[in-house]
Amino acid sequence: METIQQLHNNIKEATEYIKSQIDFRPEIGIILGTGLGSLVDGIELAGTVEYENIPHFPTSTVESHAGRLLFGTLRGKKVICMQGRFHFYEGYSFKQIVFPVWVMKELGMKTLIASNAAGGLNPNFKAGDIMLIKDHINFFPGSPLIGPNDNNMGPRFPDMYEVYNKEFLGLARETALKQNLHIQEGVYIGLTGPCLETAAEYRMFRILGGDAVGMSTVPEVIAAHHQGNKVLAFSIITDMGLPDNMHPCSIEEVIKIAGEAEPKLRELIARCVEGM
Ligand code: HPA
Which of 36, 238, 245, 260 to mutate to test the pocket of ligand 1 (most atoms within 8 A of CB)? Predict the structure, then answer.
């Protein structure tokens, strides 16, 4: 197992490399999920750094995900975007998955905004909806915080009080209203994938209290919260997991629906950033 010192050194080396490439202190980190890549279009670009050039950074294996950090200004705020994230189903460890979050923190991040594509469990939802994540259930078989704890990063036993920042939830609701955009809100269940769920599993996850299921976000949010970042997160509901109304669902469909909903979410996130 990696020692605290090794992890610390790896984060430092990655950060030093990035700083050698670009002189920019971002305050807001944004993780772009499936089909949401063009969220960056509204950003006044200051520079990019490819994942593959950053020491100790994992590299992305999924075709639909680019692999770079993007720096720039969005509605007057300095942001860093992860274009491409890492998933447990790709074979990465939880510590690899959240390594970029730790590096973004070291670069100055105070706030994390995450987005993802998710399957809807709440029968009031429909494909194409945007869901504000108000809480999560960690259904992954682990956590990025397992192992020795670095007390300089965060507490050994972080509480999960208001992980999804209450002011940000209010800001997102208010912003959506002003935008004339109806958004849903609910509980996101994070799990491994890569299979989508069986009808019995969708039923179970609904009974357990989930409004949506997906294969990301929870590890990154745990790591960000551990370090005291404020978190705001959204899902695009790309397909409905209704146990009594199952139909085939392809990744192409998921990407298509995410892409169609993306302009709404792009504007919502930009306005939220403006209001932070
Ligand atoms: N299940 C899990 N992850 C997903 C889904 C789903 O139905 N849709 C998009 N990501």
Answer: 238
Determine contact, residues 239/101, Cβ cutoff 8 Å.
no
Q: Each residue of 210-230: pLDDT tens digit?
A: 999 999 999 999 999 999 999
Cα 196 to ligand 1 centre (Å): 6
Whether residue 98 lies inside any domain: the answer is yes
Ligand 1 near 240 CB (within 6 A)? no
Question: What CATH number has the domain bearing residue 156?
Answer: 3.40.50.1580
Domain with 201 in it: 4-10+24-275
What is the overall mean pLDDT for the chain?
93
Q: Which of 74, 136, 80, 134 is nearest to 105 (CA)?
A: 80
pTM of the model: 0.95
Which residue matches tokens 């980190």?
Answer: 29
Q: Indicate the number of domains in the chain.
A: 1
The residue among 223, 127, 99 whose CA lies nearest residue 184 is 127
Kindly report the protein residue whose alpha carbon is nearest to atom 7 of ligand 1. Answer: 119
Residue 48 domain flag? yes
Pairing outcome for strands 44-50 and 130-138: unpaired
